[in-house]
Design a protein that fits this description.
By secondary structure, the protein is of the alpha/beta class. It has 2 domains: 97 residues, no CATH class; 184 residues, TIM Barrel, CATH 3.20.20. Helices cover 27% and strands 27% of the residues. It contains 9 helices and 18 strands. Helix 1 packs across helix 2. The protein is elongated, with a radius of gyration of 26 Å. The two termini are 15 Å apart.
Length: 358
Amino acid sequence: MRYDLELEVVGNSIEISVVTDTDIYKSVDPYKNIKKEKRAVFPDAVYDKLIDKVVDGWRLNKLYCEEDIPLSKTQVNNIVKIVSYTLAVTIKESNPLNSIELEMDIQNFIKTLPNGETTPEKEFVRVSMDNLGGYTEKNIIVDEIVYNEKKLDAVIELGKKQEVVISLFPICFEKDMEEYRRVITYLEARNKFLYEINDLGHYNLLKNYLGIPPERFIGGQGLSCYNHLSIKFMKDELGINSVSIPMEMDSRGVVSLVESNNSYCELNFTTLAEVPVMYSRVNSEEFYEGAQFIDRIGTLFYVHKFRDLNIFIADEYFSSKGCKDLDGLKFSRVISDRKCIEYPKSETRKFNLERRLY
């Protein structure tokens, strides 16, 4: 959607008009006279700041100004803030779609989730099957599971002492299904485990083919929930009572998801981890274990191989440490990668946590 912007000095104020197809939204800001002309900028500076800025689906079309009004940089920033606020709040509130009365079945579908029971927070460490190493300090999530009876026996022994979650790899080809069946049958004959599923195919395999109840499923990053409707679907329609908060979300989205959840479903939050950038089946001599690459914007990542896949992983860890927006939030499971704990780096990135994604 496009809007036009009009600027006009009226008396001691600058009038800011956001013009859409349906209405004009006017605001004013005290006009600040520029004492030193060399420090002045002009309305083009406002245009430059807004032309690539999209707010709630709105993008600037044209800027109208009768004359070159000298502006301070502070005034330019104020105008940009006023326009952004107008687009994000005023237009949204006056949208005629808000007055449409929804049918009752739709109202029931989108209504907030009922209050649930809070669960105590648990710490989990994500560990690859090849790197178990008798890890007994915390509950664990076992990644990259394969059929190897000796290694599976080690997982079973850990399951006698602490809570163990078996994670199914996000990308599962048809040829992998038989191995998963053997792995899960072997484990289930000796103990009952929780399973982190990352694809609806995992759900069908475990529930419909192997008869494991969804109460023992955890929705992983591959089945990420971005709003209360997806939580509702996972629990009410699929019977999954535990889901993961997407690592792609910004902090405000995380807070909103926790608040709208109302403890209705268990929420798992990854607080320290490596980030897979891409998966690829392309064969290349350059894609060996540990190979490093740098993309056009300077991001360093390395290659990890699993089965026939190349996993390109960001060299910098994802970390929620220091994100004040998340202070006081409680989750059912807080997850960290073992590698990140044992080999900490001085620089970690919050990726999208401190950005606004919408």
